[in-house]
Amino acid sequence: MMDLRDWKISALTDGYKEWLTTLPVSGDIRTLMEILAGFVLLGLIWIVVTFVTRRFLRRLLERSVPGSLMKSLFTFKVFDAKRGHLFPTITIILVAPRLFAESPLMRHWVTVASGVFLTAVILVMMFRALDVFYDRYRRHEESGHFAIKSLVQASKVILVVFGAVAIMAIFLERSPLLVLSGFGAITAVILLIFKDALLGLVAGIQLNINNMVRLGDWIQMPDDSANGTVVDIALTTIKVENFDKTLTCLPSYDLISKSFINWRGMSDSGGRRIKRSIFLDLRSIHFVDDAFCQKIEAIGLLLPFLKKRREEIATFNRSQPFDTTHPVNGRKFTNAGLFRNYVVAYLRARSDIHPDPFTFLVRHLQPTSEGLPIQIYIFTATTDWATYEGIQADIFDHLIAVLPFFDLRVFQNPSGSDLEFLRAAFEPSTSVS
Asked: Which parts of 65-144 fold into alpha helices (H)?
């Protein structure tokens, strides 16, 4: 295959050099004129190749590249006027040694300048290509919320490093591997100066590779420095929009070195936990008699439970040798037990509460000085914050309101009205004379 340097350009250079020898000028002037003529030819070659590239490259891309990708390429100016200098620069590198064959110094500097410019052009094109990739990934319907912005930025940093090494190798006319080996002497200084940036870079890559944080995740830091939705994941920082609409920028390294809560599992599950207790006044808990049970039978949700449990209690009591008419002997209903089973039936009847396999518990906790806690541990069928709070409020409004029907009271510390009642009860009455 014929080398480009031995192409038709050879005849052109030989022609203008032969013409210069016929001029009545000294050797130094003739050399200067040869250099100027070489630059003129380089300019003409640049113009011609640039014109051809700009005229036919877009047509070629339009025929071979899908429409949406083509639009992205030109939106991010991957092949705009500056990037259109790629092919002219390559041409200059190939023909410069022939044009400046008689001037080694000029040939050297033209080749070095063209190499540096070509490296810069390629770097910018690769930056734009990464931007196109990130934009198309972000718009893709199946991309999810996995943030690759930090990976794209890390790739750009790596490209800059390699580009700098390539430019130094061109200037020094040495192998890039030799230039890289020289960096070992200043590695410690670089690590000391750019410690925070390097830690953030490594942490950002770890967060993305391990899928610890995504765009749209709700995260919470233990010190409450951030409690909201992740809106941006960059190379060294993560931006969080808190629930009060303030913005918090966290160093990526903080999410690696410290613990944090990611509520993505809750969002993906489709259920949000309710874990709250009603404290019953211990003095209001007692056994109930048949008259009370007959009154409770008016509560339709408890009918299946009452029917089943009456049979179990009657069967058990008949098997006992004790006098089961005594409240302590045998098994008896309690108002707290009836209320707890009513809570189970009421919650299972609600369509906005998740049944199994989600955890569904209505349980006693250890009695405290504030009474007997009846804890409700369930999951709503929605993760929307406002809807969740409404469901939770409806449930506890209802349960607190039905407590008097079970002859139960909620524990409450004495308030102003309670103290006023006590004062009035124990204040000696005064007669008006």
From this structure: 67-75, 86-99, 104-139
